[in-house]
Amino acid sequence: MPGVVNTTGKEHASQTGATIDQYGDSLNIIPVGTPTRDELELKYYYAVQASINKGLPFGSSHLPIEHFMSVVDYQGILQGFIAGLIKARRILEIGTFIGISAIFHANALKRNGVKGGADETGHKPIVSFEISEEYAAKARANIIEAGVDEYIDIIVGDANKLLAQLEGVTFDIAFLDADKISYKGYYETIMDKGLVNKDGLIIVDNTAFESVVAYIDAPEWAVALHEFNEHIRNGPTR
Ligand SMILES: C[S@@+](CC[C@H](N)C(=O)[O-])C[C@H]1O[C@@H](n2cnc3c(N)ncnc32)[C@H](O)[C@@H]1O
């Protein structure tokens, strides 16, 4: 068996090659053999639909067009899984959109035993910045429908300013998923202010952006992404 990742200590294999299953409230990802793409997609889809995000009204790999910017299922599952591995208790998100990644994260925090509601820092376990009031309103509705509104603070405004104002709270994960041109600034502010705890993670979406970053005539935002990648590659570790 090539690899087993099993958060409950139980093992479960299937003839078909891959299984994602739910024991109690924890996620198991058990790759066995080489599954076909269709098998994997179906299993991921049903795993998400049936168990991981009980309140989520849709599977994001089958999203209607208005959900085009959301994480897809496997990314949400992976990020939730990572949040479980590092036992994350607080997550900062830059770019809420309609709340899908935040819902994945909230369910991961729940599985980690994190309680909902604001604590002494005045924040709920997930702080998520969104510049569009319209998207934020849709996110709030989705988050309520998913039953995780006690876990997510959505703050409307420009994340460049909001991040600079954020005080008195630190996070185990920062997920950067907003305007690509600001990634370097977000990263630097997070590091300068010590917003992510030692041994925490900064997860950055779209850093290759379907290879657009490598185009000779790349648009300004893709050039900024490339520069961000170089900055991380060359930058001193802190
Ligand atoms: C890719 S979407 C986020 C998707 C979301 N993380 C998910 O996976 O479900 C990017 C979001 O960032 C927001 N955004 C763009 N620039 C921003 C800024 N300067 N401050 C805050 N949010 C911003 C956009 O309005 C958009 O909703």
Question: For the terminal residues, how far apart are their CA atoms?
Answer: 38 Å
Radius of gyration: 18 Å
Give the proportion of residues in helices: 25-40%
| CATH domain topology of the largest domain | Rossmann fold
Q: Helices and strands: which structural class?
A: alpha/beta
Q: Rough shape? A: globular
Provide the CATH top-level class of the largest domain: Alpha Beta
Query: How is the biggest beta sheet arranged?
Result: 5 strands, parallel
Task: State the assembly state of the protein chains.
Answer: single chain
- Low-pLDDT stretches are 1-37, 39-43, 48-65
Count of discrete alpha- or pi-helical segments spanning 4 or more residues? 7
- Order of strands in the sheet with the most strands? 6-5-4-7-8
Average pLDDT rating: 77
Listing every helix as H and every strand as E from the N terminus to the C terminus, the arrangement reads EEEHHEHEHEHEHEH
CATH homology-level superfamily of the largest domain: Vaccinia Virus protein VP39
Tell me the fraction of residues in β-strands, as a range. Answer: 15-25%
Bound molecules: S-adenosylmethionine
The figure for the number of domains is 2
Topology:
Blueprint: E1 5-6, E2 18-23, E3 26-31, H1 37-52, H2 73-85, E4 91-94, H3 100-111, E5 126-130, H4 133-145, E6 152-156, H5 159-165, E7 171-176, H6 183-193, E8 196-204, H7 220-234
Parallel strand pairs: 4-5, 4-7, 5-6, 7-8
Antiparallel strand pairs: 1-3, 2-3
The structure holds S-adenosylmethionine.
